[in-house]
């Protein structure tokens, strides 16, 4: 989509940053602004510039959108003024019939031959006497439409379909559309009416890849309630309407059978039709978008098989296969046993890829020709963060891996035939992140010649371009041309200066991108780049090679969009610019000379180029618009008048493929290609085959790659071609899948390139001896809970999964102990993959162990499982007033108790770093006066609770011990809320009797029995005229008097009166400045009550049938209850008692009884 919007930003920092290469002409003008191109061209087997999509995807068409660009200076003036040059001519270009002048558009002066027409060929008309034929057609009435999709059916057809539409971005839908059809190669178009008398909105259209006469249009109503399809079997001459009960997101044609279509809906459902969309059947719900694949011919036995990634009921994602005629739950299969990462399924040629992440570790798996999935073996310490599949052709996988230490680069790896073992071929290939987190890696496969790749390597901040002719075994820098396009020396000589190319795909696949190659034109490469020591982002000079990168020539000083016609016999170039154009350049001699053609009388903003699929004809179309509010304009350019006959054998010359060292044996063979002679004015045609002959070469050391676990010696050493084993790899060890009774071959460090066809000669593998697989001891034994949890609830089903990475599994026995008395012996446990189902009834920590043993050795795996009930209540017990630097105890009262299973997090003040403890209490000190907030969190499994209190820290205050009538103990439930209410009523009564403000008295009732309390008497606000002595404060005397007179009392339920009095603690005066000692004793006391409560709970539960208290097993004996602490024992011994072996089963009601006892 070409947006009619603001021009895109310049590619570099500005003209001052552009340093010319040595000997180059002066730098060009400042980088131009270019329009933002966001074209979504969807092509299948089409000749439009850009990469073709996968078989079965969208047909060969382009989708464009446009937004208003910033007008050039003087373009739109108030009062109707208009810049004539911007409107009618490209600046610096000649008018119709004029020859380019010197310096115009980078052309040399007349007579230098760069833009001059070639001399006439003997027996043929002069090229100067032959003119190109261009016809323009304007799609009237579509000025408001901001997107267009174009399809050229090809295969001897003259039909072109164009869908223009107005897409409302805010509403996210198409509001208007028009469908146009041409049957004369684009000379004229007819607007189609699908439903006479009714408005039809077309969202999209799809072309069958095996029969391009069959077309499906997707239509929707403005209300989003109804959606219909329009079906055609005659290239859009007629359509049949078909209502559908779902909203189509995308359609996927079968790659072989023309009437079978998959429909992915906006709700994530997948439907299938076997009659070109007339009837639909639901296959599966909750399917992942863009991860649905038809069966691959020659690999999948059933052509009606569908591979898909779908979400299961538990929320995980699975790789599922099913037949389109029977896809029920009973017939679906899951080739990969476990869950896969969302969006990781890829089915490509012979291979299926999935990714699975467990315990924060990601592993990549591969299936070769639908066999069992195995782990992709990268070097042991590659530790990949990301993996991208580059290619899977020629029975080999080429992947880019971002390793643990890389941020903006990837390493390239090449696999064996099965795609399992990978060897490093190139390090530090540049990468970048695009929209929606997609990754773009700077590597490009040169089409037309197998095994040739271009890559941009980034080392020490510098980016350089490399080329390989043997699929990554060897890489070289590109040779620079000796002269520039004007014939002047470049002064660019290796090793300090090379040619570097930008390897970017265009955002709009309707244009060529920065490097252009085609299968129909082997050896012909055009790219944008620069000469120098590294790639410069804002320099985009155009270079061309016709011998697959061996020699290069400069052709333009600025980037151009490229289109190949007639197998590269005609090369068309249009400048990549944000200003309107009306000329194109073309060459009929592989870029040696260039001519210009005014394809329109009025300059247009060019949105893209299109030719018939396959680039085998001489007719092309230029798409564009005159202004933002103008109609779409299509210009047909016909090169057929230039060529009056078909080529014969005498019109071709041959060229030999060679690498940059001049070696013609590439990938084990000498290959020759043919191309049309520059002086031959003829059409090669559809039947032309570029490959001429091939001869097999004898094998050499360069035909072999280092095997998995080996690396090549540095190039600086004398034995640079030798492979040495990595420190972590033992070449003599048998492979992991080696089974007793079978044989294996120990690698000597070399393996032949998969697609290399050399024979005889040198073989560094030296006929390795086949060895018998030994009995291997079990290694890498693992036990886990399905779902990767280690904390479960009582009564919950737990599925234990046992895995073994290495060693024999057929003769291995597995002894399993689940920690609660369950023990069993298994065979073939890791072979079947079936989990062990178990259920723990009581809370606790259980040690699960698995011991695998055979005659060669043993291995053991251990897992600790936490079984706990969800936390129900948490209360923070803390004295509300404390002195500066006095020790204070913070206690978290938890329900249920869950001993040894709960972690406590303590936040004190404004600190973000918590203190952690396994005990429910901690001690601390506060160094500064003021209010301090204390927060505690209790975490047990997945259950987390929190409570918070504010502590007042003072320099001075007094504490008066209090006691209550014994009748209060019988009504004490020992809960925090009850103690708080008692303290409030005492402070309120004292304030009433003594006239002391209530906010200066804080009564804290202590936990446990007997019921005791401390009265904290705070200092009043300071007065500047008088100093108060705390010990002689008359307030204390007044408090003592009312207490001694028994004036402080309150009533309980049943009329019971409770009297508050001063407690005798062995001193005649109240404590000064704190009370921390009393509080510490109280905490010890309540801790003792916890132990006493445990004993009472034990005694109580023994009297109730059906209730059981469990303990850990000791020395394989039956479970017993350890002796609880008796009432006669001291408080300190109760706290220090060893309870680590006790696992209590405590219910909420029992915990409540435990607290109040």
Description:
With 1157 residues, the chain is mainly β. The protein contains seven helices and 78 strands. The strands form 21 sheets. Strands 73, 74, 75, 76, 77 and 78 form a six-stranded antiparallel β-sheet that branches. Helix 5 crosses helix 7. It is elongated. The two termini are 77 Å apart. Residues 1-129, 1027-1032, 1067-1072 and 1074-1157 have low confidence and may be disordered. Its main location: membrane. It is a single-pass type I membrane protein. It comes from Moschus moschiferus.
State the helical fraction: under 10%
Largest sheet: 6 strands, antiparallel
Shape: elongated
Class per helix and strand makeup: mainly beta
Enumerate how many helices there are, as a single number: 7
Percent range for β-strand residues: 35-45%
Estimated radius of gyration? 42 Å
Would you tell me the overall average pLDDT?
78
Poorly predicted segments: 1-129, 1027-1032, 1067-1072, 1074-1157
Question: What's the structural blueprint in terms of helices and strands?
Answer:
Elements: E1 2-8, E2 34-37, E3 61-65, H1 84-88, E4 133-139, E5 147-152, E6 160-168, E7 173-182, E8 190-191, E9 202-207, E10 215-220, E11 227-232, E12 240-244, E13 248-253, E14 261-265, E15 270-273, E16 281-284, E17 287-294, E18 305-311, E19 317-323, E20 346-348, E21 351-358, E22 361-368, E23 374-375, E24 386-391, E25 398-402, E26 409-415, E27 422-433, E28 439-441, E29 443-445, E30 453-459, E31 462-468, E32 476-477, E33 498-501, E34 515-516, E35 525-532, E36 541-545, E37 553-556, E38 560-565, E39 570-575, E40 583-587, E41 595-598, E42 605-611, E43 619-625, E44 632-638, E45 652-656, E46 665-666, E47 669-676, E48 691-696, E49 698-699, E50 704-706, E51 710-712, E52 723-725, E53 743-745, E54 750-752, E55 759-761, E56 770-772, E57 779-785, E58 791-792, E59 797-806, E60 813-817, E61 823-827, H2 829-832, E62 836-839, E63 844-854, E64 857-867, E65 873-877, E66 881-883, E67 888-895, E68 903-908, E69 915-917, E70 921-924, E71 930-940, E72 943-954, E73 957-964, H3 976-994, E74 1001-1005, E75 1012-1018, H4 1034-1044, E76 1049-1051, ...
Parallel strand pairs: 49-55, 58-64, 66-72
Antiparallel strand pairs: 1-2, 3-5, 4-44, 5-6, 6-7, 7-8, 9-10, 10-11, 11-12, 13-14, 14-15, 15-16, 17-18, 18-19, 20-21, 21-22, 22-23, 24-25, 25-26, 26-27, 27-28, 29-30, 30-31, 31-32, 33-35, 34-35, 35-36, 36-37, 38-39, 39-40, 40-41, 42-43, 43-44, 45-47, 46-47, 47-48, 50-54, 51-52, 53-56, 57-59, ...
Helix pairs in contact: 5-7
